[in-house]
Amino acid sequence: MRGLRLHLRGRRVPTAAAVAAGTVAAMWCGWRAWPGTPAACAEAVSLTVMLAVVAFGPTLGGADESLDRTAAVRWPAVRAGHLLLAAAVVAGPLLLTAGTAAPFGPPALALRDTAGLLGLTALSATLDGPARAWIAPLTWTLIAVMPFTAPGDGLAAQVVTWPVAPAGDTTAAVCATVLAAVGAARYARRGCPRVATPDAPA
């Protein structure tokens, strides 16, 4: 447990958590102040989740991944704990709004989008590094909320727009589950790409 705490502090997770929680709070306050809209729509929920999730992207990797791998640490367990904490920080405030006058959608919607977009962020970090982990969730979410990509009957349209689909949508649930499972498994097992550090001057 102490190793996990040191890992989270070294990756600046407390700062990311504060940013994510602050983002959710700001979005909720803005939506609550909007007249005539007691409950947030799916687009607002997905955008809020995306903004909170991308705050954790840079924390998924260290300054030197090769150096990290030399330590006698159970990295899969540490990385899995990292993702679970990020999911709790993002989804927790969203779920708390369920008892307010301006809830952020059904709890199932917040949990689905958190799991799927966080898994996508983790998968992106393993492929392109933590510094660019935000690109995939940002791009997918923005495409999904665009008017010209409204959910349709076709499978391709349902896959593209899964973040803004209703809470009970089966295709959206499958997409989110696959992204969460693949992203979490790959990140826990492999981490981020190793970045070669320049040799120290003689």
Structure description:
The chain has 202 residues and is mainly alpha-helical. It has helices at 2-10, 13-33, 42-54, 65-68, 75-96, 107-128, 135-145, 155-160, 170-190. Helix 6 (107-128) runs parallel beside helix 9. It is globular and about 55 Å long.
Characterize this entry briefly:
This protein has 202 residues and is mainly alpha-helical.
Termini gap: 39 Å
Residues in helices, as a percent range: 55-70%
Q: Strand-and-helix sequence, N→C?
A: HHHHHHHHH
Supply the helix-strand structural class: mainly alpha
Give the strand content. Answer: under 5%
* Structural Rg: 18 Å
Number of helices: 9
Mean pLDDT: 85
Give the strand tally.
Answer: 0
Bulk shape: globular
Q: What can be said about the biggest beta sheet? A: none
Unreliable residue runs: 198-202
